[in-house]
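Example 3.2
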Amino acid sequence: MLKILLTGGNGYIGSHLAVELIKNNYEVVIIDNLSNSAPETIDRIEKITGKRPEFYKIDLCDLNKLKGFFFEQNDISGVVHLAGFKAAGESVKKPLDYYRNNLLTLENLLICVLDKKIKSLIFSSSASVYGEPEKLPVDETTPIKKPMNPYGNTKKIGEEILKDVANANSEFNCIALRYFNAAGAHDSGLIGELPQGAPENLVPFITQTGAGVRDELKVFGNDYKTPDGTCIRDYIHVVDLAKAHIKALERLNSGKNKNNFEVFNIGTGKGASVMEAIKAFEKASGQKLKYKVVGRRSGDPDSVFTNADLAKKELGWQAEKSLDEILASAWKWEKNLRRINL
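Structure, written as tokens:
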């Protein structure tokens, strides 16, 4: 049984990945500083899988504590690095926080990984590295532009760091997965997206509005160059996203990677509009959603979605769950979270 270190494993994507890793007979050890996650998530992972991951509360910015952790752990075979700040809007207001946290954590982790001669690392990257693309769909050959916010720039710089490290260390292998819009929740309703404060993402805003936590959903613009006038994004179910990491780990473990550093877009290959997401929620919940169309936000492109053919060809992975399933699972999680019966 291979042991995988999962940084940020208590978070939204991390908790779903922990479940999938355990289901695929990996031993999971989690590092998380709990700055944006709940400690009881470990209990929920155990309830779903019947196995409790090892957990260490460590801030990856603290190199001495991280070195102490790796000194005790001698059998880690791979790392999935998810930990980091992730709110694009917040990053514009607090750029130094994002550069320090997201880049220093990666640097510290790599110091320890290389010291322990761990050969495999999966990096949580983002479609934001493409900036505002000129052509759609976006694929891995799409030029990397200046990202639209400091969060995206930390992902771009993170990829550059990893590529340089891989080029300098022939035994080190890394795959960067560029996520599109992760959404939804585990079918059990026990884990899901739990934003701190106002959500940054559309789906939790929809479900919180449906649950009465928020008065109404603001739809930012309905005059975009799309069929219904609202922005189009590539929404991928978080469980599908988690499964992509399993395929990436298998690729590295089996030595099937073609280069020391590889990137793959992880999305459905199909865009969905804001209004389509609202309708999917109304179908799942059986209720009308309160929303109001307001002015556009600056920096929102009309459409962004991926071509996921490379991931299908090289990783043997493709998204399976639909937009309806995303909203149905997110609503189940929201109801469980609020303990309501709607």
